[in-house]
Amino acid sequence: MTRPILKPGALHPITVTPTDGRVTVTAGGRTIVDTTRALTLKESVYPAVIYVPREDTDMSALEPSESASYCPYKGEASYFSIRTDGGLLPDAVWSYEDPHDAVPEIAGRLAFYRDRVEITQH
User: Fold this and answer.
1) What's the number of domains the chain is made of?
2) Does the residue 6 lie in any domain?
3) Which of the ends of the chain has fewer CB neighbours closer than 10 A, N or C?
4) Containing structural domain, residue 30
5) Is residue 7 in a domain?
């Protein structure tokens, strides 16, 4: 099955810019991310999403998931669950390992669902 690949434009803009300041991500009281190298992706009418480098992420808190999704603008996303003292937060993190040409900056970076973790910009 061939999946569509769409390019951002006036009707569906996508921008990726450096995020101001420091970003931390915590789950279950555990700091998972502490970075000054985050990127903010703004896509059309959707809420902005912060993407963080793996090098600034405690990858020992993440467990690869079997889940996947597809965005015609960004590509194939893979998922991670977060292990906390309180249990597992399934599919709380996603990443585009090999994104489409429109968003090469987010390759391999991680994004977190805001309703499952606490994301703070300092």
Assistant:
1) 1
2) no
3) N
4) 14-121
5) no
Per this entry, what is the length of the chain? 122
**CB–CB of 92/82 below 8 Å?**
yes
Using CA atoms, how far residue 112 sits from 3, 10, 79, in Å, is 25, 27, 10
Scan for tokens 């959707």, then name that residue. Answer: 46
Q: Are the C-beta atoms of residues 18 and 48 closer than 8 Å to each other?
A: no
Token readout for 71 is 């965005």
Tell me if 2 is assigned to some domain: no
Question: Cα 10–11–13 angle (5° rounding)?
Answer: 60
Average pLDDT, the chain: 96
Separation of alpha carbons 99 and 30, rounded Å:
29
Please report where in the chains the tokens 């292990």 appear, as a residue. Answer: 83
Distances (CA, A) of 119 to 25, 51, 111: 5, 11, 10
Q: What is the CATH number of the domain that holds 110?
A: 2.170.150.40
pLDDT digits (tens, 9 = 90+) for 47-83: 999 999 999 999 999 999 999 999 999 999 999 999 9
65/105 Cα distance (integer angstroms): 23
